[in-house]
Automatic annotation (TrEMBL):
Domain DUF4939: 96-175
Domain of life the protein comes from: Eukaryota
Region of interest (Disordered), residue spans: 1-21, 68-90
Coiled-coil residue windows: none
Name listed for the protein in its UniProt record: Retrotransposon-derived protein PEG10
Organism classification: Eukaryota, Fungi, Fungi incertae sedis, Zoopagomycota, Kickxellomycotina
InterPro entries: DUF4939 (IPR032549)
Source organism (scientific name): Smittium culicis
Biased composition (Polar residues): 11-21, 75-90
Classification via Pfam families: DUF4939 (PF16297)
Length: 192
């Protein structure tokens, strides 16, 4: 069958009837075979899965961007916040063991002070203020040492405001007063 000529301008055309359509596409089938239905169903499920994955990826990206913008808005430059340091503290990465508590025994003074200095060195941003250092030392005191610091607090002692003064008082009360005498005796007793 020869092709029907089509007019150039659409306003001069008439709408085709259903007979004309069937004449143009004689191979058009309205039913699908079971294999075609299966393939069509598989394609639909794959397309739906891809669309869902795309939507989830988009929502995840939006959530990440939102969280990052919130985190960025919470951060302030170090120059604006004098209490924030740029370097991470040692205790953020390493869990320091609890220090032994001091109950006032002179023999434990040196190891207790060494342990406290290790804490101060490991977390300098936590112990910037003298009061934080004094409070930390006070929480590791027992017995007579605990009674001593409670008396300082109740008397509102000025050494509670200055860490050097506090440590001098602490040393006067709990260190071995004969430590230097013992050290000199050990040096004299050394022989080559």
């Amino acid at each position: 069958m020869p092709p029907k000529p089509r007019p150039f301008f659409p306003e001069n055309t008439t709408t085709p009837s259903t007979e004309d359509i069937t004449e143009m596409n004689p191979t058009l089938e309205t039913t699908m075979s079971p294999e075609q239905e299966y393939i069509d169903a598989q394609i639909r499920t794959q397309v739906q899965a891809q669309i869902q994955a795309y939507i989830q990826a988009q929502s995840l990206a939006q959530a990440q961007a939102h969280i990052q913008s919130q985190a960025h808005s919470l951060e302030t430059p170090t120059s604006h916040n004098p209490f924030q340091h740029s370097s991470p503290s040692l205790t953020n990465r390493i869990r320091l063991p609890d220090s032994a508590k001091l109950d006032g025994k002179v023999s434990e003074y040196t190891s207790f002070i060494s342990s406290m200095e290790m804490f101060f060195w490991g977390s300098p941003e936590t112990f910037e203020l003298d009061k934080n250092k004094i409070l930390f030392v006070g929480t590791y005191l027992l017995g007579t040492a605990s009674t001593w610091i409670r008396s300082l607090i109740s008397a509102n002692s000025p050494c509670l405001e200055n860490f050097e003064m506090f440590m001098q008082e602490f040393k006067n009360n709990f260190s071995d007063p004969s430590h230097t005498i013992k050290a000199r005796r050990q040096i004299r007793n050394c022989k080559q």
